[in-house]
User: Fold these one by one.
Assistant:
Number 1:
Amino acid sequence: MQSIVADDSVSPESGKNLVDRLIDCGEFAEARIHANSLLTNCPADSEIYALLAIIEVNAGRLSVARRYMLEALRLAPDSEVAEGNLAFLNSLEQQAANAEYIHAWLVWRIRNMDFPRIISLETVGRCNAKCVFCPHPMLDRKFEAMSDELFEKIISEASRFPPDRFSGFGMHSVNEPFMDRKIFDRLATINRVVPNAQIGITTNMNVMPPRFFERIREIHRISNWIVSFNAANKQEYEETMRIDFRRTVINTRRLLEENRASQFVPGPIRLSRVESGDERDRLFAEQCAQVFSGFVPGVDFEPVTLSRADWLGDIAATSPGYFHAYPCNQWVNLTVHCNGMVPHCCVDARAQFPLGDANKQSILEIYNNPHWKNLRENVSAREVVYPCRTCNLR
């Protein structure tokens, strides 16, 4: 096919027509060059952003395409063309996510039929925050702590799991893990007793026990660290979490500094936001970059937006229900609350649908109970399982 030759002297409208023809001819690299050239002279032209989005879709760069399409909508919010293209992009993203998720699920289903992939441990029921999206205030166990006997029992049992089946522990549930005065001793116990286990940490970074960084550097195999940040501006943060914004920022900046120096967490620290479903979600990454200036997005930290749970009806849903045509990754995991109860899943905050009691049963006995194992063996969609079909998480 003969290439289309561009003329730099053409008008913006002619230039956009040229880019359109290049796209039709499949010459996406050339189209990108000319579209970016047009954007230099017409930075507020929504149609150029829409064209760039189409180019990136064809290149398979969906996240880049989404940014361009959102900018096109921002510049021309009433554009039916941009809205239609964004809907198409959403469909492509969902298809890609579903295909990737199903592949991962099939691997987990085989590998973790008899042994859990991850055990989330709520070693203390306390939390210093009062997040508007969290059911913590209604919990009966919020002033309890996991006994040493129960913790050691769980860790001892996990030490006998095949290391190629069991990935490790998440040190969180409906709580703030660093309000556990024994947290560093517990983490050291995991390192000693289950040396291959990875450790995931989710914290609001508003609470820092004495010698925090000295002790955390002694812990090995921390695989990921999520700061539950939720808003990168003081007003929204304090309205959402009801704790001091400045303290969290100071502590998190120190965390980023220490991790840059010692790399006790591989990869970037994740700054999470529970979605609000509005413009604030889009601004979160930009505001994080401003608050944590001097650190590199994607290297030192990574802003992420998480779905907002209704906690099986405990919190009013702010997003529509989701069609659960796929299995749930929680079917290969377990959560143990600080009182020993094992809930149905991560959003069964009050253990309304308990799988068992870790004080009285072994972890494998609970994990392989007939109901829970049947989900892994025979069920392919959450929509046929109660309470899974009531969950609004994507």
Note: The CA atoms of residues 108 and 319 lie 28 Å apart.
Number 2:
Amino acid sequence: MNCIVCMSRKPWDLPFLAVPQEVAALRRVLRLHLEVWRLPEVTDVAQLCVSELVSNVINHVGLETPTTLAVSMSGSYLRIEVHDPDSRALPTLVQAGLGSESGRGVVLVDAVADRWGVELRADRKVTWCELDTGLPSVCVHTVRPLTTGVDELLNGYRAKKVPNVIGAGSDPLTLAAAEEAAIDIIADLLRWMQAHGRNADDVLDRAQTHFEAEAERFNR
């Protein structure tokens, strides 16, 4: 059976604050995941949908709104969700006028996605869209918690490194803060290894080899 068809594709989500500078980072993260999932055909459209859905939160809910991007497989469809806490600001399909700088988000999503919608939950609104990947719908996407606990680790490390920052360790990490925390963790581990007589470059090489082997095994 084709390994691309039946490879594991674990649902994932990423909390962030709705600010314009996060959009490019979210697009990069999505592209990396879709490369691992071997879904290059839908990558460009998926990135466009993420940009528009997140921009909709920024423009109509507000800057720095705590938001979550969630991506999963729904049968043969790639499902993209953007969660925000405001159930009053509902996206509407209104054609933007020529020269308009806003109002195009949902129109674009409606044009490129196979289907989209809005779900109202007790504590949040979920705006979602789905893209047909062309995979057989009978394919089972097995969940494997490769990154279980990473959010907690990064948040806890940030809290220790910047103890005077209000909310550090409890507020959702932005992508930029998560990246900085990850770099701090790696640098501190390498310093510790070096202090104990280990070669930092060798450790990095072994970690990269281990990461690639795990990714290959997971994708079979």
Note: Residues 181-219 form one domain.
